[in-house]
Amino acid sequence: MTDDSIERIGVGGGTPEGQNSAYLVDERVVVDPGPPTDDAWDDLLTGLERADVSPTDLEAVLVSHWHADHAGLAPRLADAATATLAMGTGDAPLVADYATERKRRLERDRETMCRWGVPADLAEAVVAGDTASTMPDTTSVERLADGDRIAGLEAIATPGHTLGHTAFAYEGDLLIGDAVLPTYTPNVGGSDTRTLAPETNAETVSDPSLETDPLTAFLETLDRLEDRSERLLPGHGTAIADERIATIRDHHHERTERVLRTLEAHEDDGDRVGATPWQLACDLFDDLEGIHVKFGAGETAAHCRRLERDGVVDRVDTDPYRYGSLE
């Protein structure tokens, strides 16, 4: 229980980030209902029953971002409740047109990982290990822009972890999904390859000014959250410490410095053609296997992109991306 108007419902099994947190707001809205499993569904129904709420009492089901551990149960709950399902406009298509967008996402993941320098066999293994969710192929989803209101909650754009990540403000609380987590630093770059994947045409691939900068977007999100007065309620775990945002910001500043030092070490070793995000990730992280291939390479690529925008490094090749220090 958080206060009289918001109740946390723990759903699903434990994850490295902590058990998923669904939130019942004012007994008529559920935010981030949880992963698409029967166990999580039972957890959700038990939590609603504990609050003396039936699914048919709900007006809306809101989702912070498209990842299945948050969005997976949303279509099922919205259907059972005959309620509106809504999420940020940037992420809504991945739930609304799940089957089509999943195919596009997997191809984008494969192409983007190879552009980061990930060996083709490892990229293919990541894609092959991506299990389809038991979500419907298509679902009606209302798209929310920054500042839109629904069922008494305000949508707050919080991009970075995903392209369309959205938080929801209600009275003195802000439900922030994975924008800030109590113990883990949200992945930036690999958790949504749209944030670093240019359209596949020669002009966009060769012109960095046409590409996005997810790390900058994420740091701006942290600034925006820090400037607000509400209590922050995360999509995993139960509490956000006052100093947590500063800790995450410091983590990324230190990671950017490590990426630059690692790139300079490659050049000191005589690698004058620069280094790929994947080569740098292999030096930075241990045990890059499975999904961590995408997460590690993507996180490194996001920091390279930030350094490129800051004029500290330059892209010396585009297939795959290679970066070199300008100093």
Describe the structure.
There is one protein chain. This protein is an alpha/beta fold and 327 residues long. The protein has a single domain, classed as 4-Layer Sandwich (Metallo-beta-lactamase, Chain A). Helix content is 39%, strand content 17%. The protein is built from eleven helices and 13 strands. It has helices at residues 38-50, 68-71, 74-81, 93-96, 98-115, 120-128, 202-206, 214-227, 244-268, 277-284, 291-309, and strands at 6-11, 20-25, 29-31, 60-63, 84-88, 142-144, 149-150, 153-157, 166-170, 173-175, 231-233, 313-318, 321-325. The strands form three sheets. Strands 1-2-3-4-5-6 form a six-stranded mixed beta sheet. The longest helix has 25 residues, at 244-268. Mean pLDDT is 92; it is low at 200-205.
